[in-house]
Amino acid sequence: MKLYIITGMSGAGKSLAMRTLEDRGYFCIDNLPPSLIPKFAQLGAGSGQMENVAVTVDIRGAELLSDIFPALDELDAMQVPYEIIFLETLDKVLVKRYQETRRQHPLESKGLGLEEAIEKERNELEGLKKRADYIVDSSGLMPKELKNELLVLLNQGEDYEQIIINIVSFGFKYGSPLDCDNILDVRFIPNPYYNSSMRKLTGRNETVSNYVLKQNITEGFIERSIDLFEHILPGYISEGKNQVVIGIGCTGGRHRSVAIAEEISRILTEKNHRVILTHRDISKDSKR
Questions:
Q1: pLDDT value at position 99?
Q2: How many CA atoms lie within 13 A of 164 on its CB side?
Q3: What is the pLDDT of residues 231-244, one digit of tens each?
Q4: Across residues 37-59, what is the average pLDDT?
Q5: Strand positions, DSSP E, 162-231
Q6: Between the ranges 58-62, 104-108, 138-142, 254-258, where is the mean pLDDT highest?
Q7: How is the chain split into domains, by residue range?
Q8: 2-157 CATH pick, 3.30.1330.30, 3.40.50.300, 1.10.3720.10, 3.40.50.720
Q9: Residue-wise over 107-139: b if at least 16 C-beta within 10 A, else e?
């Protein structure tokens, strides 16, 4: 039996994650008290009928959340294989999501304002985040994109031991992505934004992509970046990392970073690396 523990910030996509797993035949339990996880795992392993199981652990069980670390230690002692997937989202994105849906954060019922509730939750989950095998930042992801990223992580139940390369394009004006292991700054490349015919387009557009990739300085940069990644990946693997997050940033996250991220992702995929590509800020307003 393989156990997945889904956790993270409220509003970051845990419900979507559970639905995705259910659609793939996983036995899912929402908000199981942490102290019961080892007992449930033991029951599932003994039945022989549950190969893949997923549970969520979140702030709704705040009083019981302190039990999660003894529960994880018990799972280790039982030699139950498990992985923790932590769903992360920027504070400003969470605030916007709650305002748009008019839903209440679980901690607001305790007399906190929305921003205070988010801050308190983030602090209380920090220890669990450090234990996570995978951290998925859903800040710039549409539901379909988050679902696809989760399916890549899980590899639809198949055994796959390659490290996951998570490439995130972004705009520095909106802040660097959370939890990047490496960041490439591509603001040295001529900016398509200043060409009025390309300003409203993105780096996924062929005209913009050709403009960025055919710059003399770009080709050598991409070649050296690929060499760097292939040089350092074995080190991350030897240190026990399951994924490495590479941020590629330009000013607004619409043109240069997108085109470079697309090209690097394509090359690494052709080299049989396991790649997840996210364009965090591609849909942001093109005005500066």
A1: 87
A2: 19
A3: 999 898 887 777 89
A4: 78
A5: 164-171, 182-185
A6: 254-258
A7: 2-157, 164-279
A8: 3.40.50.300
A9: beeeebebeebbebbbeebeebbeebbbbbbbb
